[in-house]
Amino acid sequence: MLSFFRKRALASLISLFGLIVMVFFLSRLTGDPAALFLPVEASAEMKAQFREIHGLNDPVMTQFIRYAGDVVTGDFGESLRKARPALDVVLEAFVWTLWLAVITMALVTGAAIVVGSLAAFRAGGFFDRFSSIISLIGASVPDFWLAIVAIVVFSVNLAWLPTSGTGSLLHWILPISVLFVRPFGIIVQVVRGSMIGALTSAYVKTARAKGVKSGPIIFVHALRNAMLPVITVIGDQAASLLNGAVIIETIFGFPGVGKLMIDSILQRDFNVVLAAILVTALAIFLMNLLIDLAYVLLDPRIRH
Amino acid sequence: MTLQIPDAALIEEPRFIVRMARMLWADKFALCAALFLVTILILAIIGPAWLGDAAIKQNLRGRNAAPFEWDRGWLWWMGADALGRPLFARIIVATQNTMMVAAGAVIISSVIGTVLGLVAGFSSPRVNQVIMRLADVIMSFPSLLIAVIVLYILGSSILNLMLVLSITRIPVYLRTTRAEVLEIRERMFVQAARVMGASGKRIVFRHILPVVLPTLTTLATLDFAYVMLAESALSFLGIGIQPPEITWGLMISQGRQYLTNAWWLSFWPGLAIILTTMSLNLLSNWLRIALDPVQRWRLEMKGRNNG
Amino acid sequence: MAEHLLEVRNLSVEFHTAMGVVKAVRSISYHLGRGETLAILGESGSGKSVSSSAIMNLIDMPPGRISSGEILLNGADLLKMPAHERRKINGSRIAMIFQDPLSHLNPVYTVGWQIREALTTHGADAAKAQSEALRLIARVGVPHPERALDKYPHEFSGGQRQRVMIAMALALRPDLLIADEPTTALDVTVQAEVLALLKELQEETGMAVMIITHDLGVVAEIADRVVVMEKGELVETGTVREVYHNPQHPYTKRLIAAAPGKGEMHAPQGFGEPVLRVRDVRKHYGAFEALKGVSFDLMPGETMAVVGESGSGKSTLARILLRLDEADSGSALWKGRDLFTLSPGELYKLRRDLQMVFQDPTQSLNPRMTVFQLISEAWIIHPDILPKAKWRERVAELLVQVGLGPEHMGRYPHQFSGGQRQRIAIARALALEPQLIICDEAVSALDVSVQAQVIALLDRLRREMGIAFIFIAHDLPVVRDFANHVMVMQQGNVVEMGTVSEIFDTPREDYTRALLAAGLDPDPDIQAANRAARLRQVS
Amino acid sequence: GSGPIKIVLPEEADLLEPCMATRSNIGRIIMQNVSETLTELDVRGDKGVMPRLAEKWEQNSDGSWRFHLRQGVTFSDGTAFDAKDVKHSLDRIMSDKNACESRRYFGGMTVTANIVDDHTVDFSADPVQPILPLLLTLVTIVPEETPLEFVREPVGTGPYKLTDWTPGQQIVLTSRDDYWGEKPEVTEATYLFRADPSVRAAMVQTGEADLSPSISQLDATNPATDFSYLDSETVYLRIDHNIEPLNDIRVRRALNMAIDREAFLGTLVPEGAVLATAIVPPPTLGWNPNVKVPAFDTEGARKLLEEAKADGVKVDTPITIVARSANFPNVTEIMEAIQAQLQEAGFTIELKFVEVAEHEQYYSKPFKDGRGPQIVAAMHDNSKGDPSFSMFFKYASEGTQSGFSDPKVDDLITRASAAVGDERAKLWSELIAYVHDEVVADVLLFHMVGFSRVSERLEFKPTMATNSMLQLSEIGIK
Ligand SMILES: Nc1ncnc2c1ncn2[C@@H]1O[C@H](COP(=O)(O)OP(=O)(O)OP(=O)(O)O)[C@@H](O)[C@H]1O
Ligand SMILES: Nc1ncnc2c1ncn2[C@@H]1O[C@H](COP(=O)(O)OP(=O)(O)OP(=O)(O)O)[C@@H](O)[C@H]1O
Ligand SMILES: [Mg+2]
Ligand SMILES: [Mg+2]
């Protein structure tokens, strides 16, 4: 087990490094931050000066070596825009994103498993059709629709919830509800599909012969067997939340890493982009590790 | 001496196509879905030639015309956009691009992802490790960044957009496939195939893939929606498809600011996406049953009862 | 009639398939009293499992349909009962041992958990369940009971799994136990123990047993009355002795005549070079040593039977010889080449020479392939064997050879009975025209008439085509009829090896003798005498 | 009355650095609220440059300027304001150790501050700067202790000080008791940031904010709270004169004639927008009322094109209009409409929408070699009252965004920049007319209007400068 972790950690480190190298060089092909940082009217000298200050005039290789050296010592550079350590900026935002992702995924997972399993239990029945329609709409509705409609209904018309921002627990309700919808739709469908197969297995018959009730048959016997694809998809959805829910963050004024990343990408604030990717990648790598462990825990036949 | 099985053998099994058609007929939801998709497909092919001109004819006086004002003419029944162009015509014309991007991206990503997943699940730990870490990398590469980089370097076109969107979707298929392969390859019938000398390729494609396929199909149909909406988000940020090209996603993103004043601008393309996703999903659920011998009776029974 | 615990009246079950309605059970009636043991005999596919599933309410409806009849338990019709009441009966009042233990055990839970669940579902508390589970699993003879409870189904041998199923079914001391071929995967000593256990429980609790089996010996040992089924119909019923000594229906007659173990024993055949030379094969699973140095030679055209207690490593040996598992050490020279060191390419070429019929037929057939696809896959993989035009013809031929019909070609595995599936697996192995077939309990799921037929077929192949067999079996009479050599295994060791007559007539080791002594005779009178003798010995 | 208010802005300030206050997202918060300048432009009336931290100023005979500083002013950190602070503030902006943005307004000149006494400073500029007092409206004053690098906690002499800044969430300014001037009614201002315009509008409606300086035209439906105002942003199409067929004046004229500007007003462009005849909006010095919007005349445009074609100009070459997504409201629709109108007149137009970084590459020099005929749609903002902030960049041969080179234009710009008073206004007027009518430099479209939503409890009228400066002291509370 330990050697498994060691190998995994090493491989992850290498790929993380590869990721950074790739982002570093590719992003530098996409334009000049000086032109964006400075107003359009800025003179060529000013731009040159700006590049000088931020070391953008050196050959890219030199820049990279410098960057890599700094990173090793824990220095992720400064944000061009914000003139603050890039890592601080990112971590500040990431905490919000992490909470948002964790809470949303916890709710989604619970709800989707219950709904998807019940739908599979009576495949083709009323509940199945109904939940399929709801979840498919959820999976394909543009999220800004939901966001704006939710604000208009719940904040402006009913005045139950604040429109946006952070502060109280109430502020979390709308963003989480809107974020909830799409992963819910997707995971319900995956659970349903996987469960239909599991529920026809012979061991389900055994359980019925033992007199086990439908509830445990679905949620104990079949579900665990059906979980492999489900947790994979949960991981995928969680990863996209960890990478930031741009639209939701933008509309609800949620200071997460998604909007930060978009802004930094569009403004070519490379240090922030790199730090953000490093932080989210680390989180995603960790999550994938947990998922791989979950496979082994869920299904004893899978060995490494 | 032959042991007879009562009755069953007497009826010759009908041809594959006939059987599928019967099973489709049996599931009315799937049938509607199939018809809808066929319509979409036809519109995708003839749309631009048929309504291409109507879709770009501007009329600032009729901007944001409301839907269901029948006296404007049938083209306007969905209303008009901010430049007074008939939404109905635009949706139809946009079908082609939308389908190309969505289908292209989904097909590319699912095929690549699945193949890599099969390889990862079935080959040596080292290859597995390499592929899985690659998946980690793609997964943690924010899709927007890939989009900006690729579209900046290669320029924005339908093809490049397809490419960008498909790269970002590879890991789901990859990881799902691999997880399933890990379990399925331990099953006895896989071992039986190995005993017969079946090559890795055959085992993977003939024995393992069919078991994973239903899950992948479900994912792929849902990804259709994902891709269309992601494309919309990219357009909004100025790195996706841009006018005068049209896609449903672009129409949604253009209608975004009018959501509270002229809801129909983004409603219809949104509805088109929802209906397409739903149809695909209904069809894939139907297919899952139709292709599974253990489940097939559900459809066959119904076919019998109904017809 | 109320004195009958169970009464089945006019039960008919049909299945819907793509090719029409299969009437699996046609209007059968039988009854079973408290403390009584009823054996259901019948050809494979005759509806034995389906009718017992109907009693358990386990038929998937649809596609299945109970088209007529009633099933009365203590006079109450189970078919008309509301679902929640019906559920309370399952497990506590009627329990079932399934035919196919691997697929019927949930692969992701430990067997301990699964046994405990049977108890807790009907109200036992956790501590009680744990101690009961331990007691049960020890009682069915699974080695190292404490450890066994924490293992997963795939970590057991076929016989051990079957014992787990038995333990699970007995957990709640049901009024009625339906046992669908409960001992096919058990070696004779364990079989004897299990049967004794059933009897004991019957005496303790007045449990009624409905046992479905192909083994006339088992019938003779345990049953009071017999029901014989053929093609979904009940063709004969009576006490064991009546039926054995005075069968009425032609099928029954044929069945009894086909009982194995009466023919002549084969002499060793092969001379000269052995085709397979196995030396000192060892295999560990973690700390557990499954094979402790197995060596033997196999001559061309010979059958080497491997008998021995369940869990002694027989299947493991088979898997290792086929490179489905890697041996820890040792060698296996096939015509001079070491199977263990071949590269994948070389192995591929050799594969068609070495085939296997697996112990668990359900799991070894791809559920998504039709019988035709399953069998013809061999020729896709090895295209030089047969041109495509001839496939249909040859599949039909093979199906007939194993006692099925060409009309089964388009069906899927789940539409067959256990025994029928096993025959498909045999046909598939034959399709490759191999030179060595490893049969892991290949005929134990077949009724004796078909079994005799299949054995005759294998024997003919052996003679005519010089195919060698490694024949793993528990059924000693079959071994006696078919094998040239016998190898007796216990706990990963070969305890004795010799020609059939050496082993059967002059066994040297105690274990071999015990095995032989535990064998059951199909004649109820002889069996009764044997039992009496055994009891005398014990006391 | 008085009390705290909440203001919701579209974009967060990523810095609160005084020398970056000329950038609108920063200036909106700190300019004149936290950091003050020596002088101030009157955007509500026509008083021109007014005193702020300087009480009065005069030009010395050598062309340098003498400023007399206000006395008794303290910074929010308690230190007193004097000439050394002024000098340091200017030096800091001019330093090459940082990327202070205000420096861009001093391109092509050197300005130095010389301390005469504690309350008097001489500014000398080379070349002589007639609009130095105007330029000083852009120089925020920081204490002399301020390091050259960017600071995160701005210290200034303004009526407010920064009391809370939670990045991503809010910025709070609280009024100072020791402010030298009149005490404003707003005691505390909390700035919130929401990128979505309809959310901003909703927030004022629900009372979560009191003021949203910019909302979408579409949301501006309540006359009691929603106001439009000319916001000094000018939309235009910058033409690259270097590439055929755009090098031909008839083609450029045709471009101008083919666009039906009027049709946009009240449809894709808000009602109150003004058709542009110059790159700077009307109240700017030298704005020329005699320059007329080119008449919409598709036929005329078509004729001009044919003429050019007859002379061998390749008018059929596809011309690309490069626009920036989300640059201003309705940008896509406006560009698509323009494309349609131009096509109507016989042009072949391709549209290309790009994100900001890419747009920048098309907009500013150096232009790419081998490019085709290009037109860049852009928006320019000059609320500073003087065209010099625009003309050089947009029209001089050396100007970064100039698409052509014309000696007369260069000469006029140089002369106007150096001139003062009426002469200056006259020269600018001449330049504006020349560029528009003779050079036909570009296609000027609209001076845009913005919409704001102001809670009914506030008394506030947005101005042209609101985009870049929002003085809390101008907000009254009912
Ligand atoms: N799901 C199904 N669909 C179609 N036919 C089925 C299905 N299940 C069982 N049958 C058919 O019903 C008949 C009875 O099957 P059953 O399993 O009862 O046989 P069995 O007597 O138990 O045989 P064995 O001893 O081989 O296990 C068989 O012919 C089988 O093909
Ligand atoms: N994957 C595994 N992990 C751990 N132990 C295993 C595994 N597979 C088999 N074993 C153990 O190895 C021993 C030999 O198993 P094997 O299947 O070869 O028995 P067998 O002789 O075929 O018995 P049976 O007649 O019951 O089928 C058993 O005790 C079993 O518990
Ligand atoms: Mg059976
Ligand atoms: Mg075995």
Automatic annotation (TrEMBL), chain A:
GO terms for cellular component: plasma membrane. Keywords: Cell membrane, Membrane, Transmembrane, Transmembrane helix, Transport. CDD domains: TM_PBP2. It is a multi-pass membrane protein. Pfam families: BPD_transp_1 (PF00528), BPD_transp_1_N (PF19300). The keyword Amino-acid biosynthesis does not apply. One of its GO terms (biological process) is transmembrane transport. Its main location: membrane. It is found in: Cell membrane. The chain crosses the membrane at residues 9-29, 93-121, 133-160, 180-204, 216-235, 241-260, 272-298. InterPro entries: BPD_transp_1_N (IPR045621), MetI-like (IPR000515), MetI-like_sf (IPR035906). It comes from the Bacteria. The keyword Transit peptide does not apply. Residues 94-291 form the ABC transmembrane type-1 domain. Belongs to the binding-protein-dependent transport system permease family. This is Putative ABC transporter permease. It comes from Sinorhizobium sojae CCBAU 05684. The lineage of its organism: Bacteria, Pseudomonadati, Pseudomonadota, Alphaproteobacteria, Hyphomicrobiales.
TrEMBL record, chain B:
The chain crosses the membrane at residues 29-51, 74-93, 100-123, 143-165, 208-229, 262-283. GO terms for cellular component: plasma membrane. GO terms for biological process: peptide transport; protein transport; transmembrane transport. It is a multi-pass membrane protein. The lineage of its organism: Bacteria, Pseudomonadati, Pseudomonadota, Alphaproteobacteria, Hyphomicrobiales. Residues 95-284 form the ABC transmembrane type-1 domain. It comes from the Bacteria. Its main location: membrane. It comes from Sinorhizobium sojae CCBAU 05684. This is Dipeptide transport system permease protein DppC. Belongs to the binding-protein-dependent transport system permease family. It is found in: Cell membrane. Coiled coil: none annotated. Keywords: Cell membrane, Membrane, Peptide transport, Protein transport, Transmembrane, Transmembrane helix, Transport.
UniProtKB/TrEMBL annotation, chain C:
GO terms for molecular function: ATP binding; ATP hydrolysis activity. It is a peripheral membrane protein. The keyword Transport applies. GO terms for biological process: amino acid transport; peptide transport; transmembrane transport. SMART domains: AAA. CDD domains: ABC_NikE_OppD_transporters. Keywords: Amino-acid transport, ATP-binding, Nucleotide-binding, Transport. Residues 8-256, 276-516 form the ABC transporter domain. It is found in: Cell inner membrane. InterPro entries: AAA+_ATPase, ABC_transp_ATP-bind, ABC_transporter-like_ATP-bd, ABC_transporter-like_CS, Oligopep_ABC_C, P-loop_NTPase. The keyword Transport applies. GO terms for cellular component: plasma membrane. Its main location: membrane. Pfam families: ABC_tran, oligo_HPY. Probably part of a binding-protein-dependent transport system y4tOPQRS for a peptide. Probably responsible for energy coupling to the transport system. Belongs to the ABC transporter superfamily. This is Dipeptide transport ATP-binding protein DppD.
